[in-house]
């Protein structure tokens, strides 16, 4: 019976996502923001809505299943699809800027957010740094979906998409390092740097190898169904293998997507390329739909409203850290214009990754500060999705950065 209950849940959420897609066109609202709002309304409508009895309580579902569902099932196709579209030549040109934002930028964000929260709330510094780590990265799911829907300039899209893909992996790695520090109570700088480099490099290497192997098989096959199947195995296989050996699974998917997108199509027929792109576009749409509905369903709006003071403190810290990272590091790259800096700053949305990492925590790992930490994280996610997500189009219009569609052209796709 559990299979039928899960099937009913999936079909219900898919129907809701489709109806939201129609509604947001009328309201001129970003599709992802509309999903979050509907998720909040559904959560207010009925606390046990959408939870099959066989899966246990709503709390059990959110604590035990959703982190794995988001990170292991929904994130890999979204990251793979985004990385697949990035051209290696263009990425190499912007890689120094992207990696500057994605590595030192994420680490600096963790320390700034953690320091401000520890100072302003009295939360223990290790726990505050853990909060800073899970909020350090911009979410590729939220950022990529938003920028595609707005038709951002190609270079700006590449920078923010590339940053969000790479800094996501960085944030997961430093989050796990902070968890280890919290458990042992000790930290050695040299050992921390070594672990960071090994986990990150291992994930990239595994993803690159699996991506190349998948592309080699595709180059010897002339059947678009098999070739699409190989890309699915590549996306999920890279994540699973990297996680099995305790490397960065998200970075493995990034590398696999980059290699597959730049090597694989060489051996594909035009028909296969078209079918492949259509398949991954639909897969990304499905994953986007479920991710953002889940964000709305998970966040307890009443709990957020009851903790506006602590959430406001974290939000100020996150925005301050983003300001320092974007405007500070941009001084090293003269090609980053002021308009681009403004968009990069305000486009630092937090979403599914922060949510999944926060939900994966337990009282045994964090202690009595866990409820406050999770509420702070959820509040920041909600603000960035609702406020920054809905005002991004206005900002880009004022900065004249939105691509104007000629009359008669269809609207941008929902994802």
Structure report:
The chain has 415 residues and is mainly alpha-helical. It has helices spanning 2-27, 31-45, 58-84, 88-102, 104-121, 125-134, 140-150, 154-184, 189-218, 224-244, 249-263, 270-298, 301-306, 308-329, 338-346, 352-359, 363-366, 370-398. Helix 3 (58-84) packs parallel to helix 11 and helix 5 (104-121) crosses helix 6 (125-134).
Q: How confident is the prediction overall: mean pLDDT?
A: 84
Computed over alpha carbons, the radius of gyration is 21 Å
Q: Hey, roughly how much beta strand do the residues contain?
A: under 5%
Total count of strands = 0
Q: H/E series, N to C?
A: HHHHHHHHHHHHHHHHHH
What percent of the residues sit in helical stretches (DSSP H or I)? over 70%
Largest sheet: none
Count of DSSP-assigned helices: 18
Give the overall silhouette: globular
Low-confidence segments, ≥5 residues, pLDDT <50?
405-415
Distance between the terminal alpha carbons, to the nearest Å?
33 Å
What structural class results from the helix and strand content? Answer: mainly alpha
